[in-house]
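[scheduler] slot 2 assigned
[scheduler] job type: sequence-to-structure, two independent chains
[scheduler] chain ordering preserved from manifest
[runner] begin chain α
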Amino acid sequence: MFLLLAGCATAQEAHQSRVVLAGPTDVTIQVYQGITLVSASVNRAAGVLMMVDTGAQWTMVSPLLARRGGLAVPADAPRRKLAVVGGQMIDVPFVRLATLKVGEAVVEDFEVGVYEIFPQTKVLDGLLGGDFLHKFRVTVDRTANRMRLEPLGR
């Protein structure tokens, strides 16, 4: 099941994450059955495989990845109602990561949803959504298996 994640804006979004990227960074991508995959690191957990989804509003991580990254989801975690393909609504808790890194592009103090997005595909750790991608100028070259992230304003 693939998710199309859309949500309502909340007061939590007023918090500004910090973007760290001095210059362009090129990262290798894998394209499998039309899906773009990229390796990332979450907090100190490296080797994280994420689906790149420019149409998803939010970045999501699996509960297993959250645990690997040292995150607990508190009972009072902020929650968002998200729509998935088919119109079903899901209630997703959000937690704050210390870092999410793709290549040399780092976003610090970054809020992500914790949800089992791909229950039948345990190799995928999460979904890299627009809330991360829109912090950079992103160019995806599927022919060269490369994604370039550049600082905005250059």
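[runner] end chain α
[runner] begin chain β
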Amino acid sequence: PLVYEDDHLIAVNKPAGVAVHGGSGVSFGVIEQLRRARPQAKFLELVHRLDKETSGVLLLAKKRSALTALQDQFRARDTGKTYLALVAGTWPKNLKVIDQPLLKTLDAAGERHVRVASPANEDARRSITVIRRIEPHGEFTLLEIGLKTGRTHQIRVHLAHAGHPIVGDPKYGDFALNKRVAKELRFGRMFLHAAGLAFDHPATGERITLAAPLPADCATLLAST
């Protein structure tokens, strides 16, 4: 579903379970689908990425000038990102900032894995996650999250390390809980949604704020908890 489009960029509401691009056993992703649907498009590139399991606002550039300008903003952290995550347990109200370094590793199968590391580890990168809103939902808590840094799997690892993994997270989550939620509540995906994105338009400089509504399955789960 399109969230926004003009001569310079496209924003889509990416469904969960769809990769942003092909590779690693995935024959095609969002970028390949859009290119196939728009054979007349001379230029179409991803500005940033979302995990396959994450839904929400995904930005693509229709011009190289737009791509470089937007990527510069992402690198400089001039963009505003808002995520919604449903986590296990009751989130402590006084925990508003997680400032813990993250380290990327590869397991024996060559799969990427991220963990919280010691600040003394020179390969670890400082990572800051901000909790903006806390909303209890029975045995779960809905969090509105902002990012000061954009590391791989940052939100997922930080929340799991705090003892409150994201519901349905297949890599860093509580697997017994995920199985129970899938069976009893019929929710079989990760509850992490890129709900909002703000940036300066690459051509006009106007501040653009985009929002992607919560997917129906996430809204249904919240209503039942």
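[runner] end chain β
[qc] chain β: The first helix runs from residue 30 to 37.
[scheduler] slot 2 released
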